[in-house]
Structures are given as structure tokens and as C-alpha cells.
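Translate sequence into C-alpha cells.
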Amino acid sequence: MAASEADHVQCFSTYEEADEFIRKYEVETTSQYVKRNTLNFGKHSITTLDKRRIWFEDHRGEIKIFDNGIPFVSIGKEIRECHHGPKRERKSAKKVEQTEHKYARRKRRIIQDTKKQFCTAVIRIKIIVRFPEFKIDLCASEKEKKQVLYQLKESFSDETKETGSFCEN
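Result follows.
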């Protein structure tokens, strides 16, 4: 997919800042975005690094995070799309009870069957936790990166054992 001039990335310190930015954008553009998909959302902190992958850069999916030497962990993601977006009907709502007599059912003329206009506007949000105290050189070797990741996991587990939480910057 080619990036257009309309595609851009905004970074925020907290989820609340991002949500406020989206609300202001909705007011300015008189549009509305609805949550379509969430993964592990609502969890803005982590208690363990077990079974979590630590990244220096992430080129997967639509949101690319480039290497700046600071390791991070992805916590969750959310997709919001314009309420005029694609039609998403639930199959359970379509089930119509079959009756023996069909004459009781009235037919209505539907002038406008949906407000959907197939708008492609989408907001993608990714929550990550960065560890700036473990920053490394951009030209560091894979061996140096692995050493830093090992130190990060060790210090994270030690600090969480003592206090029960890990301070995020």
C-alpha cells in the first residue's frame, strides 16, 4: 500500500492524550469514529516481561516504529473507523423467524437502506512501553542488543519482585 499525504503518525505520552486529540479532531471535521477492534486495551501497564517480545523496531502491520535505540514492549492496539465506513451487519440480527403464514408480513419500501458510504478513514492506535534507561547506540551489534535485553529482563523482574510494579517513563 502506498503512503499518501493524508497518512501521518501522531505520538502521545498517554492514551488519554490520544483520546482527547481524536475527540477534538472529530469536532473539527464533524466526523465520528467508532471502535471496531481492540486487543488488550485498557491495560496501560505491565507487571512482567515473561512471554513478551521486546523490540527495538517494529515494521509489522500498519503502524511502523523505527529504531531509535530505545527498547519497547507492545501492550495493545485499537482500530477506530469512520461511522460512515463499510457496512458490518451481524448475522444473528438477520435471522427472521419463519412463520407458517406469509400473508401477515408487510412489505415496506426502503428508500435508504443504510447511512454507510464506505468511508475508508481509519485511526489505528498502538500502546507501547519504552525503556529509555536501556538506550543503546543505533549501530550496535546484535550481540550488544541481546545483552541489553537480558539486562532489561533481569532488572525488570528484580524491581517488580520488590515493589510489585515497574516505573514507566
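Note: The radius of gyration is 23 Å.
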